[in-house]
Design goal:
The protein is mainly β. Helices cover about 5% and strands about 30% of the residues.
């Protein structure tokens, strides 16, 4: 399993590795306490219209929309661009006008894949969900 370590504001032990959900995922390199801030989504800040134009052309979308702008993490080699969707996530994303922050919904064990519910996404319900949760909605 190839790991790419990176620095996070709270947990420096996060790593990217092959995911059982799809592609590569983001994993906890240490135990994470419930409600702990894990880190922030990083990337190029672009206008929402530009983000949507880019997303329409991509198979894998790594864009988070904020109030008046978006963050495109496409060029990032590490970080939250690798967090996969789950219908039963262990993190949640808090959006402010300038940031997209990730927090633990529950205690997360070392080695566990970090997941978030994409909720509204650029996939607009057209991408089959592969999360494997007992109550999977089937589509993202």
């Amino acid at each position: 399993m190839r790991r790419i370590a990176f620095s996070s504001p709270v947990h420096d032990a996060l790593f990217v590795a092959r995911s059982p959900i799809t592609g590569r995922g983001l994993f906890a390199g240490c135990a994470i306490a419930r409600r702990a801030k894990i880190g922030e989504f990083e990337g190029e800040v672009v206008a929402i219209a530009e983000a949507r134009r880019r997303a329409a052309k991509l198979a894998i979308v790594a864009i988070v929309e904020l109030d008046r702008k978006a963050i495109d993490a496409r060029g990032m080699r590490t970080g939250f661009r690798f967090i996969n969707h789950s219908c039963a996530p262990n993190t949640f994303m808090r959006r402010t006008k300038d940031r997209a922050e990730f927090y633990a919904l529950r205690a997360i064990a070392k080695g566990e894949e970090l997941t978030v519910d994409y909720e509204d996404s650029h996939h607009e319900g057209r991408l089959r969900c592969r999360c494997g949760a007992a109550r999977c909605r089937g589509w993202i």
